[in-house]
Design the sequence.
């Protein structure tokens, strides 16, 4: 196998994007687009543009040619060309170019603003599978159930029903509380007390109680499907220090006997810590989704750090794209470029063979997810 | 624009060194010089030299030619050549070669040992502006005011007067307590109680009380000038773990409505964390000053990590030089080399255009600071 | 000095492996071998192999040729070729090829499973010196001493006797408790109370009491020999967050007047933090042992991060190999490759001279350890 064959192999690998959201519905003006290419939820200050970022330059570099523009076209030209197509055409264009065979869709975040599982499958001509978010399901149950004591059973039934065709679960405990929670499974009495407190507060929109959040985690683990956890950076509504996956160590020990696989998502800047956990715990895998896209020209450097301690069977690919279909495409494109560069670099420096590099790329981009989620 | 034109552009960019100290007064022997090229305040052990470090090698590589020595001249030859010039000539030589148009001078540290704002301007033939250190001003007020209840108003007046011509404020709460402080603004009663305790202790030389330190921060924020915070590594008198800027997250949220810009200085090894904060909070910028100089041949690698999540409007240049004018020169020289290497590398790998690279270098080295501090 | 001469110099430098364990006794099947090339103590899941890791690929790349196989031979072929030799022949082969002049052997971990100091010297034809583990010695004393009040004196006597010919001490407080311990020296009364509690528990196999662990540290420091501390990643029995060396800052300040040198081992992913401590504290050195081996093709990238703040007099080489003699060889081989690449890179980019690069390599691989331990 030659270096060119290795690059070709990575460029054409049908990826499993094991953690993604839907694509945006309806037209997007400049302000709307700029707000969707940053993790900040604050208005963009008038003295800056979110295009002036690694992600912004990556859009101008890699997405512009799909709109028949030169690479590095200006943000203005890019948005003008984009505005000539409707969102469905844009989605088909970018999803089609991403080379993804399967999307695993987290439907629990702003489900109304973006396409659902079936619509994503249709637009992309790929397979799409659902990942069910634990917190959203509890909030749904609570909004429909007035009796506190009925909630635990109702939640288990709801989860059963919602996951009948799903391939995984997701938790955003990192956002709602952080990983510095008591690792032990809460007792039924503790759960009821916490539910009582929550109902009494009159604010049952968002679950933030640490007892309930860890009850969700344990219930999710008992369900048995792979459990995805948001880890590391994300939007403004986060204490990044509490999203360090090392805080999960004792909880990972306690759930290990139950046999459920845990997947750490994104992880930046704690991706080396994630690699350590994946090294020592058989039931831990991780990805650098979201990260790969946001660090743009630095993707190879960051992905390489994830390839230090991690066993190669524990690496997964995701985009974590949400909104503009450019992001679904960029996640894949930047991952391919970075993986070619990193693994090709190992070959060039004499440490790896091309055959091993190609095999690791396949594990990372596809086979590990196929095994973990039982798909493909 | 060719790669050479990009390199030329960065090499000739007039920098705004937005956080710097004065240059040393009077002659420096070997021991004195060695002690000023380390952050350690401990005597250098007899079995080592601080020249055996990235900074030491950078001095021998980049400063030696300005003294008509070959690059990599020995430390002995370097110091001998240096000793032939007086400090004013050395300062003019190295400041003149740094290509800095504006210095923003923190006058609050060992003001007697180094030149002040005007003298730095004269020696460098550049503009110089003052940055006022909050802790020093409170210590000044306390040393002149015997009545505790008069201190709060006296401090506000003092700050008003001292900042009449200043462009920014600085806090070293990282050294005096760490960032693990209560983020809320203290009440007037709390401040008076803390002042009482401090006066009663009989040791009012250094403010270390966390209530007073955060009162200084809040008072600084209310003053409205950009507020610089020491972040990350520094001298021996520091708990580095408490200088992680993520500890500031909740405080940053609370001050956000006041509209004051906060600048995180140095940041190593928490520069990725600083980049995250600059990404999500519109009022946060940061630099890699001090770091760039100390990591020498590794400057490009470290600066590149700062260029991952950070919006390009949030990057600033500083040297944080203190003492030998070599450091003022090296801060600029190593930054130019590193930025050329990093941004040129993005161009070479096909991710950025030369035009974008030149524009980002200009934002980083000059324009962001000009906008933030209203200078240039 | 040419780049080739620099590479030759590093390739032929007689190393001091200042922290290592013995080589495995008796034959190793595939399962046994796979378990010794991971830090995880969990059974390897049936869907993965520990050969699919940076370390596994490094074994196939660099050890296979010593068994007359092609580089990148398959794991199956490698193990088949290995099985044709007995462990003594394998040890002589790999130890002989490592170019190590002196081994400093930590004898406190699974001493029965691996060779002792003298046997390692004989197999390698190198010098071997002992490093005595504090926790094991206390556990020995406690298993032979039924009277609590006799333990403190008995331990000091035991340590005196065991270290008569030793060159250093070692502590694994990172495993047994973490670095978040009270930094102060415990009183005699506190030690006796803790011993009482331990004896009363009936479980005196492993010392885990934080009072006793820090008494061991202080007693070790008072003994005066260089004290090695496990830092950063290791096996599953660790809270990695508590193995951050910055947690040692206050303890390092308190022991500084006693004049004992402290060596931080491995350090990943906290090696930049270790470099900072080595920068500011004259009595702190560190290595990237274990790390270098486990990160394989990434060794140069990781070692370079250790070369940022650290004075060059504070860098040490170790393999931390345990078990298969491949690891003793790989530690040295990957270090040589990485150091050539990193220091050669500094030369190539114009920052360092070849002569300085060669000198720093010699300090790092040999001379710093020779000075610190008084050997070679």
Sequence:
């Amino acid at each position: 196998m030659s270096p060119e064959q290795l690059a070709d192999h990575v460029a054409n690998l049908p990826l499993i994007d094991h953690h993604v959201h839907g694509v945006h519905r309806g037209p997007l003006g400049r302000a709307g687009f700029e707000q969707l290419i940053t993790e900040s939820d604050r208005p963009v200050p008038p003295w800056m543009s979110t295009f002036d970022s690694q992600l912004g330059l990556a859009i101008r570099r890699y997405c512009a040619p799909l709109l028949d523009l030169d690479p590095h076209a200006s943000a203005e030209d890019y948005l003008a060309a984009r505005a000539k197509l409707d969102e469905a055409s844009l989605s088909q264009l970018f999803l089609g170019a991403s080379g993804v065979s399967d999307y695993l869709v987290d439907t629990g975040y702003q489900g109304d603003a973006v396409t659902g599982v079936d619509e994503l499958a249709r637009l992309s001509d790929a397979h799409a599978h659902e990942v069910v978010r634990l917190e959203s399901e509890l909030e749904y149950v609570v909004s429909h159930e007035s009796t506190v004591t009925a909630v635990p059973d109702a939640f288990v039934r709801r989860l059963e029903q919602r996951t009948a065709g799903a391939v995984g679960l997701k938790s955003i405990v990192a956002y709602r509380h952080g990983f510095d929670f008591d690792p032990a499974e809460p007792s039924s009495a503790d759960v009821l007390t916490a539910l009582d407190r929550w109902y009494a507060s009159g604010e049952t929109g968002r679950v933030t109680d640490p007892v309930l959040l860890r009850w969700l985690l344990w219930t999710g683990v008992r369900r048995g499907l792979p459990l995805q956890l948001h880890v590391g950076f994300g939007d403004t509504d986060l204490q990044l220090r509490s999203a360090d996956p090392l805080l999960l160590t004792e909880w990972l020990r306690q759930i290990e006997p139950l046999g459920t696989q845990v997947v750490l998502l994104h992880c930046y800047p704690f991706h080396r810590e994630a690699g350590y956990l994946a090294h020592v715990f058989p039931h831990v895998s991780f990805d650098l989704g979201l990260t790969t896209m946001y660090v743009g020209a630095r993707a190879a450097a960051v992905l390489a750090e994830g390839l230090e301690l991690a066993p190669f069977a524990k690496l997964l690919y995701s985009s974590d794209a949400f909104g503009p279909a450019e992001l679904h495409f960029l996640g894949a494109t930047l991952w391919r470029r970075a993986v070619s560069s990193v693994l090709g670099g190992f070959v060039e420096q004499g440490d790896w063979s091309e055959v091993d590099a190609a095999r690791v790329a396949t594990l990372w981009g596809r086979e590990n997810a196929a095994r973990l989620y039982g798909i493909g």
About this structure: The interface with chain A takes residues 38-45, 47-50, 52-54, 57-58, 61, 71-72, 233, 235-236, 239-241, 268-269, 294-298, 301-302, 341 of chain C (CB under 8 Å). Strands of chain C lie at 15-20, 100-106, 127-133, 168-171, 227-231, 262-266, 284-287, 315-316. Chain C has a mean pLDDT of 97.
